[in-house]
Amino acid sequence: MAAKPSVFRADNPLPSDLSTDSSIYRRGGGGGGGPSSASRRRDLVFVVNPRGANGRTVKEWKKLLPYLRSRLGTHCNICESLTSGPSHAIDITREAIREGADVVVAVGGDGTLHEVVNGFFWDGKPVANPEGELMHSTALGLIPLGTGSDFARTFGWKNDPHEAVERLAKGLRSRVDVGVISGESGESHYFINVADIHLSAKAGYYASKYKRFGNLCYVLGSLQAFMGHHNEDLRIRIDEGEWKVYSQVTALCIGNAKYFGGGMMITPNADPCSGNFEVVILQDFKWYDFILKLHRLYMGTHLSVKNVSSRSVHSIEVEDLSGRGSIYIQSDGEHLGFLPRKICILPSAIEMIC
Asked: What stretches pass through the bilayer (predicted)?
C-alpha cells in the first residue's frame, strides 16, 4: 500500500474535501489488528484562511510549515486545508471530526477560530465521530496569525506561532465553554470569545470593511458607527428571570473571554472555563466618554465608571423596544444580524489544546 501523505490540501469548498484520503483519520482498535491508541499517530487538521490579514496569514503559515513538520511530523499526520470562502472552515471542521481527527487547528485570527468553533456543532448538537469512540473526542487548537487574535489574549498567549506549535506538541487539553445564540428563526450560532450588541457590534460590522488596514480597522469602524448613533432602551431578561427595561443602552457585551476589538479588555472578569458569561452594559455614553475613558476600556478598569454595570450570567435575552429591528449583534467579530436574540452558555462544551 502506498504511504499516506504527510500533508493533504483541501481546496474544494464541499465538505467531502477531507474524505479523499479519509483513512488518515481512521484509528486502529478492537480486533482489526490496527495500532493501539497508545502507539497510533495523532491526526491534526490545520484550517488555514489564505485571505486572512490581507494574505499575510498564508505567508506566515508557509514559513511555519517546515518547523511544524519537523516538530510534529514524527508522531502526527498533518493535514493542511485551505479555506476557499466564508463558512468553508465550518464544513472542513465537521468533516474532520466525523473522520475522527484528534485536533482541528484554526490558523488565523478570531474569524477563522469562530468558524472552526461553529464546525464543532450541527443542528444544535455537537458533531460526533460516527464510529462512536467513547474514549476519544476531537480537540480545538489555535495558531493565532490573523488581524485580530483577541481570544488568545485571555490565556496570555503571544502572537507567536512557534509557541502555538509547542502547545500542540504537548497536547494538554482543557474543557472550555462556548456560547450559543438563537433568534426568532430558531437557528443556533456559536461563539467562543465575546458577543456584543448595539454600538460595538455596529463598529465591528463597519470594521470588517477596513480589514486591509490591519488593527486600524477597529478605529475606522468605530468612527463610522458613531455617525448617527443613538442610545436605545432594551428589554432584557437574565437567567430566565423577570424582564427589565435598561434605558439608553450604548453597548451590551457578553464575554466568554476577556478581550475584543483588537485588545480591549471589555469583560475583564470573564473566564472561558467558569461556566458563566460576564455581561457588561454601558448606558448613556456620549462620543466624548469613549475618548476620555478609552484607556480604561483597554486596561479593563472601566467597571467602576459611572453608567457601567457588570454581572455573571448563564443566559440573557435581549429585545429592541423600538421595534425597528435595527440594533446590531455580532459574535467573535462576525455580524449576525439584529435583535431579538437569546444567548446561553454551554459549559465545558469543547476540549481545547492549552
From this structure: none
